[in-house]
């Protein structure tokens, strides 16, 4: 099923690996500086300089397959690169491959009008601006997106957007210029045709970024996660994406690749955690023996390698299925990877923290931040339970069909 890596992807992978070693790991502390107080939500000159370098080396928009601004890679090819850039939380944005901009660029490229692409996609592909995706609301259980209550109401030649969103990644950044907002335009329509998605420039009167939210205390500057209020924000009718009532259609298209990209990145994070766990275990002695010589630690390392291999294969299989059968047909593979990979990689990172002792919980190692990152994805982009429920539905349907066929 899995093809050998082609020359182009192998070449990009080598270049990416070298770039990470030369420019990313040595600058990680500065790039992820959570302690920065001033200009916290502004991209630093260092980030800009590294983006320029990456772009000059052709390590830019690696996910993008809609035109010459990207590398035209399949999901399977990109998986191998995403794993490398996933090894550092600082890296995705350096290559313009970060959430939520990647997902928003996918939406604009797939569903945007020419005018919408010109205004928003072009500067996003050049990382001149950032964007956010606003679906989740504090007042309702948003894992069921039909609950979303924000209103998008037609008013003359435009739409008026009213609602409160939270956990909006990217909205804290000074460069965040546009939100893709999901809301109801027709509460009386059939359940999955009530929602629309609309582009709302962040400087529209009525849009207020109220506060940053943190994940176990990590605020993830400069993009951050924000609570955002849309208080009668009025935009032109040409800001509607795809058409009224088609929000779910867009959401489905966006989330498939997005979920798999997260899994790919986490494989890289966990791979690095195993490497550092082994290095640490080999360098420390307790009770007269190296940690790496202790049976308990060795069992942990063997278990981590086994689980990571399973996670990697599931992710590769999902990427392969997306390429071969399309995102919709690959939804079960995507769901299984989305459930399995964040849990398993989180456990691996947690074990690496344990082997590091107190240091593992500190900011001196990347592990604590990495653990928080994997933990978030057991909720973000759909909680585990929702994906298991979808898998159970498909499984039970298959069983019922089998039973019917046997009866005939
Ligand atoms: C760091 C971070 C970044 C995020 N970024 C964004 C973003 O950029 N844009 C955005 O719109 N949102 C974002 N989110 C929000 C995220 O997508 C939601 O938190 C998620 O969809 C769950 O919605 P909820 O928080 O309302 O949980 P709820 O819907 O209230 O669900 C709570 C819990 O109920 C349980 N549950 C739900 N359904 C079922 C079921 N069918 N069976 C069994 N149990 C169930 C699950 O355990 C679930 O975790 C982000 C979240 C985090 C933490």
Automatic annotation (TrEMBL):
Kindly state the subunit structure of this protein. Homodimer.
Q: Which GO terms describe its biological process?
A: fatty acid beta-oxidation using acyl-CoA dehydrogenase
GO molecular function terms attached to this record: acyl-CoA dehydrogenase activity; flavin adenine dinucleotide binding
Q: List the keywords (alphabetical).
A: FAD, Flavoprotein, Oxidoreductase, Plasmid
Q: Where is each Acyl-CoA dehydrogenase/oxidase C-terminal domain found?
A: 245-394
Q: Where is the Acyl-CoA oxidase/dehydrogenase middle domain?
A: 132-231
InterPro entries documented for this protein: Acyl-CoA_dehydrogenase (IPR050741), Acyl-CoA_Oxase/DH_mid-dom (IPR006091), Acyl-CoA_Oxase/DH_mid-dom_sf (IPR046373), AcylCo_DH-like_C (IPR036250), AcylCo_DH/oxidase_C (IPR009075), AcylCoA_DH/ox_N (IPR013786), AcylCoA_DH/ox_N_sf (IPR037069), AcylCoA_DH/oxidase_NM_dom_sf (IPR009100)
Residue ranges of domain Acyl-CoA dehydrogenase/oxidase N-terminal in the record: 7-127
**PANTHER family, sorted:** ACYL-COA DEHYDROGENASE FAMILY MEMBER 11, MEDIUM-CHAIN SPECIFIC ACYL-COA DEHYDROGENASE, MITOCHONDRIAL-RELATED
Q: Which Pfam family, just one, is annotated for this protein?
A: Acyl-CoA_dh_1
Cofactor(s), names only, from the UniProt record: FAD
* UniProt similarity note: Belongs to the acyl-CoA dehydrogenase family.
Keyword Oxidoreductase present in the record's keywords: the answer is: yes
Q: Name one GO cellular component term.
A: cytoplasm
- Mind telling me what this protein is named? Acyl-CoA dehydrogenase
Parts of the chain that traverse the membrane: none
